[in-house]
């Protein structure tokens, strides 16, 4: 098998809009790669998403204009990407966002290509052509560096909000349109319509201020006051995993390893212990304030300011002076 010296990034689109995580991945790959970074874009025949995409400086865009495939399911997408690799050659690496779509399509493609995949990476770098993929392991207690030395493409999914997207003018950009992929239709599943959810994980992932609630502030009164505080601060409410047992919170608001990675200017942690699975999602927060009754709470190690005391009383007092 001939490996082409290209590093591919899958462009995720939702209802004819590019998911911004794509730009984060392109920027990161441009920073670390000495070979061309190629964006794989599938769009409707009358769309022009390549214009927006080109602002982030990929070296090449492989463009598939296909009205059916845009609305295709994960199996169809997998088959189309497999056909694309058969047509173009095997890239050195192929990176996907660790989103619902990326987490479904990337492993299916990996299995078909009989290569390796590292899921949910928090960092990527190259040693020559070898992609070194960093991810938390063993319950997030250690960071592992994983490589796939003998198979191609070296595949990874990387979490949204970990890398920073930066615009770049690339006058050398080439756009190559691919015709006749002849992907196989999935007859078992039919998607009749697609709607954007009212609330998305983007709300918390993009929030500039977050009030995060943990088990130590899980009472009805604690949650009520924390929500008032959030309103006054124009902040979004986030939670730790135990709070997702409540009807009003889901994985959409959960911060951490199995939830969302956040990068706010201000994060207030109320009654949160600081388990590694939670702190994995907050390393890009700028100012962290934490409140906990336990003076030895782990979360204080990740905090710029902390208060030893009751979260509810703290929220009440802070809300009163705002
Ligand atoms: C595979 C895996 C993935 C996971 N993914 C995630 C994830 O993405 N996100 C996540 O959050 N968790 C995740 N978890 C769970 C994680 O391990 C912790 O259990 C969880 O983060 C703990 O949440 P907490 O801090 O709210 O609760 P606790 O650990 O119970 O901490 C509560 C804290 O509140 C303090 N406290 C008590 N009363 C008060 C009070 N009145 N005022 C102030 N402080 C008070 C206590 O001192 C304590 O420190 C995951 C676990 C596993 C195994």
TrEMBL record:
<dbReference type="InterPro" id="IPR029035">
    <property type="entry name" value="DHS-like_NAD/FAD-binding_dom"/>
</dbReference>
<dbReference type="InterPro" id="IPR001308">
    <property type="entry name" value="ETF_a/FixB"/>
</dbReference>
<protein>
    <submittedName>
        <fullName>Electron transfer flavoprotein subunit alpha/FixB family protein</fullName>
    </submittedName>
</protein>
<dbReference type="InterPro" id="IPR014729">
    <property type="entry name" value="Rossmann-like_a/b/a_fold"/>
</dbReference>
<dbReference type="InterPro" id="IPR014730">
    <property type="entry name" value="ETF_a/b_N"/>
</dbReference>
<dbReference type="Pfam" id="PF00766">
    <property type="entry name" value="ETF_alpha"/>
</dbReference>
<dbReference type="Pfam" id="PF01012">
    <property type="entry name" value="ETF"/>
</dbReference>
<comment type="similarity">
    <text>Belongs to the ETF alpha-subunit/FixB family.</text>
</comment>
<dbReference type="InterPro" id="IPR033947">
    <property type="entry name" value="ETF_alpha_N"/>
</dbReference>
<feature type="domain" description="Electron transfer flavoprotein alpha/beta-subunit N-terminal">
    <location>
        <begin position="7"/>
        <end position="195"/>
    </location>
</feature>
<dbReference type="InterPro" id="IPR014731">
    <property type="entry name" value="ETF_asu_C"/>
</dbReference>
